[in-house]
Predict the structure.
Amino acid sequence: MNSKHPESITAQALGWVDEATRAITPPIHVSSTYIRDADNQYRSGRIYVRDNNPAFDQAEAVINTLEGGHQTLLFASGMAAATAVFQALQPGDHVLAPQVMYWSLRNWLMSFARGWGLDVELIDMTSPDALQRALRPGKTKLVWIESPANPLWTVTDIAASAQLAHDAGALLAVDSTVPTPVLSQPIALGADIVMHAATKYLNGHSDLVAGTLTARADNEHWQRVRKVRAQIGGTLGSFESWLLLRGLRTLHLRVRAACASAQRIAEHFHGHRHVAEVLYPGLPGCQGHEIAKRQMRGGFGGMLSIRVRGDGRGGEAAAIAVAANTALWKRATSLGGVESLIEHRASVEGAGTPAPPDLLRLSVGIEHVDDLIADLEQALAR
Ligand SMILES: Cc1ncc(COP(=O)(O)O)c(C=O)c1O
């Protein structure tokens, strides 16, 4: 266990120095294959890049240290990481996932995962009672949670969910993309697997797609996850691994800045005459605020949503117009970059979305918070 503060771990990427050159940033390894020893052995431990790329080593080690895990694996995207957790299960296994979660994974679960034979059930994951009722001891193999969850930022009690899942013989996996290890460490709260869309905060610059999984311990399921990555091949490229490591060095600065601004923005627009509701776990009245205070440290994340008042023309039209009229906030999907993004979420998610039609999702970047507030104010006033 590394005893340094997390900021020191990320800033220096664990302090590694390239042995060959004494460089303080790693080279980009691009070789796809490695020389076998003359006696037919592979003593380097490297055989072929799909399974084992030295470009992964530092980023995996940094994330693993931050999460306090047994092992971390990089994947080609957040979706490649998340789906590997389910692909490592067996047809017929029962799986519980939240009704409110990242929409693309929910769609995949309802189509491909079900088609492949997983018995997927969506429940209100914010209610430990609902989880308790839905668990089928011996049959439920995995509980998947996301906290705070897209796009309503509902909070799930990770420790309580872990306890209930374990009592029923199931694993608990947590999509921790939004809080990042800066604010929340699910493994310390009992989770078995932590997943990140590293596309978002871990990289932080909207210039790559990547995913990660961290396991609390080695077990049969994790061995299968490793095989899924190696055999299906959802592995990250060398340049993307290098970029991710560079982004990680400033993770704490970026997340703290985004959190502080998101809190200010949430408080500013709470009770605003053009805003029906602000959804943000940092607001005392919002769902899960007390749990978030316990399981998030130093902030409530950089993501929030606002519901725009229709004032006669309907909330949906008003929300779309507000997004169209912002200048500093960029109208785009995704989250966790240094630039602030605004999005009419129901348009993206389509049928079955839990996002009300008047909802705008805000990903707060690191611009000056006064400029962000002023831009939203003028867009709401138009
Ligand atoms: C919370 C969350 N999980 C998973 C994903 C999927 O990540 P990726 O786009 O890297 O596949 C996203 C992407 O938006 C996300 O927001």
Q: What stands out?
A: The first helix runs from residue 6 to 11.
